[in-house]
């Protein structure tokens, strides 16, 4: 299949999927369900690219496995978290801000997610159309990054889930595991995941294009829909969160600073991810 046809088909499927979620949220009032659908649909695009691409078998298997496992794990995690709980505060805030224009603007926001997903899917389409496989060192490094990112993000989600389920930790910041070293370790590992495809594809035709997904994801999480929205609300609603910000790195896991370091039991818990 020509790559242009495959990309257009994937984009059309994303638009339909997100359009259906938009229709459902009109009835349920829970726009947060776009998050699991986003992960699951992007994982499905990875598998589709691998099936449609004419590239080397190893390249297509890597794209399908990497994107498919990532999307299934993250999608299942977000589905369990979002399907029965209240609407994610980020989406509730947008709904309140937009007022009577919320339905139309939410549709535009969902369609923007389709465009972003298409940009991220560059990570799958490029290797799936490559005839040559990477060198052994590149394969080892790419797989190491991919497995480390998947394991790290799963661990961060599990640690936060355990913290939130602990009655003794109610109202306290999560400093378990990775959360002691980063305020958003799941965001870090999410961005790291997309770097694996860059290492796999770099030096190949159009390999440079795989730099777009990791940079785009990091920018979105750090500057647009992740950290800014979460922390603007948390500093207003969670006592002590400013102290947590002063001692703990926002993104890259790093030993916490000691200045103004309060006991972890007085730090507030982290809000849901984007």
From TrEMBL:
Family annotation (Pfam families): DUF1295
InterPro entries noted in UniProt: UstE-like
Membrane-spanning parts: 6-24, 36-55, 107-129, 135-156
Alphabetized UniProt keyword annotations: Membrane, Transmembrane, Transmembrane helix
Name the record gives this protein: Steroid 5-alpha reductase family enzyme
